[in-house]
């Protein structure tokens, strides 16, 4: 038996002004057929895990297309439609095959399409007919829709945040597909949703966080035989569409009512602990003061409003302005996306001092650029290799990058947004963050992998493309009432 494989991943954000197309995907992965295989082999990716599971089950695979973006705002309509057409063409060319495995994110949005994954699954289903098994792996922050469930037989989401299980999630989804093709199971898939979105910063699955307890409960229920697979989705919270909500999925072996009951149980528990997701946050100025009062020798300033991993641009200068105006004479570092400043630094050269305007280069809705006189200490091409997690071994690229110095403050200016896994962007500028007192990170969860006895953190609040306090987000389309902007006496199930 043969299984067709598709990978198409992007995380959208309605509050980001980013509009991504072919260029943004090409920086990560946009390839067809066998050209994909060397880039995914041995990597901790969902698509790699899926293919390994299928091969272990004795099935052959045919790779069609891998299109991988990162997080942003919306995908250009034309790029999405062209990519969908390519997938359908490649699938048709690959026929005959017996099943399909798809590595998706689940929170993709386009300029004029709210549910691209549902649309894509519907188109694939129309191509292959009602009887062919279709399985897909999803990110934990997927916006799972009834349309996605309608056209897929198997949907499995990540269980960890920070994400550490992309490979095993892809493996699990594809293994269930293999069991289906071999006649061992007949999957029943059920979705339950609640009219709520949950803050990302409180959504860790580590330690005793609320999502950690949900994770434990789901695995216990699987071990007890209550379901073949249980997934939970606190949802990408910055998608401003009417029917977005937290969700749970359950898969049973031909027991649809049991699947629905399990999904109901899990999403109800998520709803019951919703208030625990709210965590302390500070304005930029308050965050600096709080950080300097902490005992740890290094404190990470987590720039909640400007998380590139959540779809923001990475050009928010709110913390830069606060650091410069604080009068604090401590070693510190921040990275800002500003192609113009980076280009200027490359042009004037190392050792030269000049007046720079930094920040708000891609999104000027919240702050003005910061004017600063700085010395150019280092210029690099911005390319690096990720060192950890699912991205380990992958190439990263910030575009032309420069290290500027203002007293003890190091300002890294790069040319375009990039996924911040750990401290790779500082290391290519010869900055060891552990030797600094204050270090800004523009991610909402991966920073936790850098914490230790001598490294603490403070969460920064404020306006931006990823507003961490969801009550302050500029909602326009989300159906009210919904948590956390409103509360309910009863669990607000959506179907």
Write the layout of secondary structure elements.
Elements: E1 2-11, E2 19-20, H1 22-26, E3 29-32, H2 37-40, H3 46-56, E4 60-71, E5 74-75, H4 77-94, E6 99-104, H5 116-128, E7 134-138, H6 146-151, E8 154-157, H7 166-181, E9 187-194, H8 210-223, E10 229-233, E11 246-253, H9 256-272, H10 284-292, E12 298-303, H11 318-325, E13 332-337, H12 339-348, E14 353-358, E15 370-380, E16 383-385, E17 395-397, E18 401-406, E19 409-414, H13 424-427, E20 438-441, E21 455-460
Parallel strand pairs: 1-4, 1-6, 2-5, 6-7, 7-8, 12-20, 12-21, 13-19, 13-20
Antiparallel strand pairs: 3-4, 9-11, 10-11, 14-15, 15-18, 16-17, 18-19
Helix pairs in contact: 3-7, 4-5, 8-9
Most strands sheet: 8 strands, mixed
Report Rg. Answer: 23 Å
Number of strands: 21
- How far apart, in Å, are the first and last alpha carbons? 37 Å
Total discrete domains: 2
Number of helices: 13
Description:
- The chain has helices spanning about 20-25, 35-40, 45-55, 75-95, 115-130, 145-150, 165-180, 210-225, 255-270, 285-290, 320-325, 340-350, 425, and strands at about 1-10, 20, 30, 60-70, 75, 100-105, 135-140, 155, 185-195, 230-235, 245-255, 300-305, 330-335, 355-360, 370-380, 385, 395, 400-405, 410-415, 440, 455-460.
- It is α/β, with parallel strands linked by helices and about 500 residues long.
- Helix 3 packs parallel to helix 7 (about 165-180).
- The strands form 5 sheets. Strands 14-15-18-19-13-20-12-21 form an 8-stranded mixed sheet. A 6-stranded mixed sheet has the order 3-4-1-6-7-8, sandwiched between helices. The chain has a 3-stranded antiparallel sheet with strand order 9-11-10, sandwiched between helices.
- The chain is globular.
- Helix 6 (about 145-150) links the parallel strand 7 and strand 8 (about 155).
- It has 2 domains: about 1-275, Rossmann fold (3-Layer(aba) Sandwich), CATH 3.40.50.2300; about 285-470, no CATH class.
- The chain has 13 helices and 21 strands.
């Amino acid at each position: 038996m043969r299984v067709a494989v598709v990978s198409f991943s992007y995380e959208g954000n309605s509050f980001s002004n980013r509009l991504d197309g072919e260029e943004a995907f090409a920086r990560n992965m946009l390839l067809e057929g066998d050209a994909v295989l060397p880039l995914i082999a041995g990597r901790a990716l969902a698509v790699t895990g899926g293919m390994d599971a299928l091969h272990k089950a004795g099935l052959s695979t045919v790779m069609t297309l891998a299109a991988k973006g990162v997080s942003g705002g919306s995908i250009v309509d034309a790029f999405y439609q062209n990519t969908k057409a390519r997938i359908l063409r490649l699938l048709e060319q690959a026929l005959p095959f017996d099943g399909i495995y798809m590595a998706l994110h689940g929170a993709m949005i386009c300029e004029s399409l709210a549910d691209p994954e549902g649309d894509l699954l519907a188109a694939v289903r129309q191509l292959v007919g009602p009887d062919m098994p279709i399985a897909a792996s999803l990110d934990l922050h997927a916006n799972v829709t009834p349309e996605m469930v309608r056209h897929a037989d198997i949907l499995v989401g990540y269980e960890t945040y920070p994400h550490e299980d992309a490979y095993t999630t892809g493996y699990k989804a594809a293994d269930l597909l293999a069991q289906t093709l071999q006649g061992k199971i007949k999957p029943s898939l059920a979705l339950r949703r609640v009219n709520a979105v949950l803050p990302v910063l409180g959504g860790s699955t580590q330690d005793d966080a609320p999502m950690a307890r949900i994770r434990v409960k789901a695995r216990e229920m699987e071990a007890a035989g209550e379901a073949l697979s249980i997934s939970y989705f606190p949802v990408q919270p910055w998608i401003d569409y009417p029917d977005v909500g937290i969700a749970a999925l359950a898969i049973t072996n031909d027991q649809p009512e049991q699947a629905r009951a399990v999904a109901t149980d899990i999403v109800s528990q998520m709803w019951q602990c919703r208030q625990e997701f709210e965590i302390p946050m500070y304005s930029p100025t308050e965050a600096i003061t709080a950080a300097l009062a902490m005992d740890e020798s290094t404190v990470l300033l987590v720039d909640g409003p400007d998380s590139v991993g959540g779809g923001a641009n990475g050009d928010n200068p709110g913390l830069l302005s606060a650091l410069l105006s604080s009068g604090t004479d401590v070693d510190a570092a921040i990275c800002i996306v500003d192609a113009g400043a980076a280009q200027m630094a490359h042009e004037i050269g190392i050792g030269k001092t000049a007046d720079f305007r930094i920040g708000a280069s891609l999104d000027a809705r919240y702050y003005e650029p910061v004017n600063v006189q700085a010395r150019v200490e280092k210029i690099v091409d911005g390319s690096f290799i990720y060192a950890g997690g699912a991205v380990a071994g992958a190439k990263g690229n910030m575009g032309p990058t420069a290290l500027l110095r203002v007293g003890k403050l190091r300002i890294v200016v790069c040319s375009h947004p990039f996924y911040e896994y750990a401290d790779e962007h500082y290391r290519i500028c010869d900055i060891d963050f552990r030797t600094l007192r204050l270090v800004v990170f523009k991610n909402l969860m991966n920073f936790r992998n850098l914490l230790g006895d001598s490294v603490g953190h403070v969460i920064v609040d404020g306006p931006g493309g990823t507003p961490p306090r969801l009550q302050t987000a500029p909602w326009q389309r989300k159906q009210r009432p919904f948590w956390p902007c409103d509360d309910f006496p009863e669990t607000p199930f959506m179907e």
